C-alpha cells in the first residue's frame, strides 16, 4: 500500500499535458486567452489593439498550433504556452 507522502512525490514527476482545444469549454478557453493576454502585456507599439481583436489573434494562433494549452498536473493549472516554451516532456 502506498502512503499519501509517496503519492505526492509521484505527482511531482508527472509531465505537462497538451490539451486539445476541442476538450476545453468556450468559457474556460476565453479565460485562458484573457490570462495569456494579460501575462504577455498590453504594449503593442503605436497601434492600440482591442481586447476582442487580441482574443481573435490568440485563438487563431491556437488553431494554427503556434501556441498551446498546457495542463500542469503537479500544480493543477492550465495555461497557454508559446511553442518555443513548451516543456520538453510534453
Structure notes:
It is a single chain. With 90 residues, the chain is α+β, with helices and mostly antiparallel strands. It has a single domain, classed as YehU-like (Arc Repressor Mutant, subunit A, Orthogonal Bundle), CATH 1.10.10.610. The chain has helices spanning 4-11, 26-40, 51-63, and strands at 17-18, 67-72, 77-82. Strand 2 and strand 3 (77-82) form a beta hairpin. Helix 2 packs across helix 3. The protein starts with a helix and ends in an 8-residue tail after the last strand.
List the helices and strands and how they pair.
Elements lengths: L3 H8 L5 E2 L7 H15 L10 H13 L3 E6 L4 E6 L8
Antiparallel strand pairs: 1-2, 2-3
> What structural class do you assign from the helix and strand content?
alpha+beta
Tell me the radius of gyration.
16 Å
Low-confidence regions: 1-6
The domain count comes to 1
Instruction: Report the sheet-strand fraction.
Output: 15-25%
The ordered string of helix (H) and strand (E) elements is HEHHEE
Instruction: Please report the distance between the alpha carbons of the first and last residues.
Output: 29 Å
- Biggest sheet strand order reads 1-2-3
Give the overall average pLDDT.
84
**Overall CATH architecture:** Orthogonal Bundle
Helix content range: 40-55%
Number of helical elements: 3
CATH fold node name: Arc Repressor Mutant, subunit A
CATH superfamily name?
Answer: YehU-like
- What does the largest sheet look like? 3 strands, antiparallel
CATH class category label: Mainly Alpha
Shape: globular
Number of strands: 3
